[in-house]
Amino acid sequence: MAVIRKAVWIAAVAYLVAGQAFAAEKLRVAYVHVFDDAPVVIARDKGFFASEGLDAQVTMFTSGPTLVKGLVTDQSDLGVLGFTNAITWAAQGADLKIIGKVQEGYHSLVARNDRGIKSLKDLKGKTLASQAAGSTADIVLKGVVLKSAGLTDKDVNIVYTAPSTALASLRSGRVDAAFLFEPYDSIAKASAPVTEIYEIGKVWPFPCMVVIVPGRLTRERPEAVKKSLAALRRSMEFMKEKPAEAARVLAPSFMAEEGLAMEGKTIAPEEIMLKSLKTNIFDWRLGKNDLSRMEELTGVMKTLGILKEDVPLSSVVDLRWQTELERQKR
Predict the structure, then answer these.
(1) How far apart are CA 280 and CA 132, in angstroms?
(2) Contact 304, 143 (CB under 8 A)
(3) In the chain, where does DSSP find H-type helix?
(4) Which of 100, 120, 263, 278 is deepest in the core (most CB within 10 A)?
(5) DSSP 115
(6) For residue 144, how many other CB atoms are within 10 A of its CB?
(7) Using CA atoms, how far apart are residues 82 and 208, in angstroms rounded to an integer?
(8) Which is it for strands 54-61 and 25-32: parallel, antiparallel or unpaired?
(9) In whole angstroms, what is the distance from residue 113 CA to residue 196 CA?
(10) Could you tell me which CATH number the domain at 108-203 has?
C-alpha cells in the first residue's frame, strides 16, 4: 500500500512539474486602437500568442504617448505604436528598445471636392483635420507632407481631433480636408464627397508602427521577446495569406456591426476591413531602408524642436530576435 501511495505521489509531482514547464509565459501586451495595430488583434483572436507559449494580457490604449508611459512605468511588457514615441522617450533617458516593425506608414490626405483643393499647395489657408499634436502622424504631416509643398503648419489651420470626429467634420463640411489612416480613409471615400490628393506611403514610405519593449525585458526575459515577435510575424503572414478571413476577425474591433450605410445600401464591415488590408503594408522586419528612413524622421523631429539633441538609432533599435527568426525555417 505504501508503495502505491509513493507511486501516486511521484506521479502527482511529475504532473505538476510538467505543468509548470509547459505553462504559458505571461506577457502584458499593449496596442493603440488604430488599424495600424491590427496584427495585435489578429494575434490575440487567432491564438498566435498562445501558440507561441505566451499568456498575453492584451490592453487597448487610446494614444501612443499614454501607451509608452505604461512601458516606462512597468505597467506593460510590450507595445505596438509609432516609433517616434520610443525616440522621444529615449531622448529623456527611458530604456526602450525597438525589436521589429509592424506597419509602414499609411496616411491619406483627402479633400472635399467643393473646396478647390487639387494638390497639397491648395491647402494654404484651408482647414485640415489631423491627429494629436506631437503624434507620429503630426510629425510626418508637418515635417514631410506640408514641407514637400513648400508649406508650414502656419499656412494651414490644423484641427487636432479624433479620427471619427475628423471624418464627421469632413462629411459636414466643417473642415476642408483630413489626414486619415484606415479604416477612416476607406469610410470617407465611400461616404463623403472627397478625393485623395496624397498618400504618404506612396510618396515617402517609412516604418510607422513598431514593436517596442522596455530594455529590462530584453535582459531578463529574452525568450519572451522572441516569442512575442514570432507571434506577430505569424499574425502578419496570416493577414497576407488569408485577407478575407483576417477581415472577418478584425471587423468587430474596428467597425460597427451594422456596417456602413450610404445611398440606400449597406457596405459590410468585412468589406471595409478588406480594403484597409489592401492599402496597408504590414511587415515584421526592419530593413536597411527602414532604418535609413527612421534616421531621416529623427532628423525631422529635431528640426521641429521635438528633440533637443541627436538620439543614436543604434541605442534604441535591437534586431537580435529579428535576425534569429529570419534564420529559422518555418
Answers:
(1) 21
(2) yes
(3) 2-21, 38-45, 48-51, 64-72, 83-90, 136-140, 146-148, 163-172, 184-191, 200-203, 215-220, 222-241, 243-254, 269-279, 288-303, 320-327
(4) 100
(5) T
(6) 17
(7) 5
(8) parallel
(9) 10
(10) 3.40.190.10
> Amino acid identity of 167?
L
Q: Position of cell 471624418?
A: 167
C-alpha cell at 50: 498562445
**Is 210 within 8 Å of 297 (Cβ atoms)?**
no
The cell 505538476 sits on which residue?
A: 16
Equal CATH topology for 24-104+207-242+277-327 and 108-203: yes
The predicted model scores a pTM of: 0.88
Domain ranges of the chain: 24-104+207-242+277-327, 108-203
d(CA 195, CA 291) in angstroms, rounded, equals 32
Q: How many CA within 13 A on the CB side of residue 20?
A: 5
One pLDDT digit (tens) per residue for the chain, 330 residues? 554 554 445 454 444 444 444 578 999 999 998 999 999 999 999 999 999 999 999 999 988 888 999 999 999 999 999 999 999 999 999 999 999 999 999 999 999 999 999 999 999 999 999 988 888 899 999 999 999 999 999 999 999 998 889 999 999 999 999 999 999 999 899 888 999 999 999 999 999 999 999 999 999 999 999 999 999 999 999 999 999 999 999 999 988 655 566 555 678 889 999 999 999 999 999 999 999 999 999 999 999 999 998 899 999 999 999 999 999 865
Class of 24-104+207-242+277-327 per CATH?
alpha beta
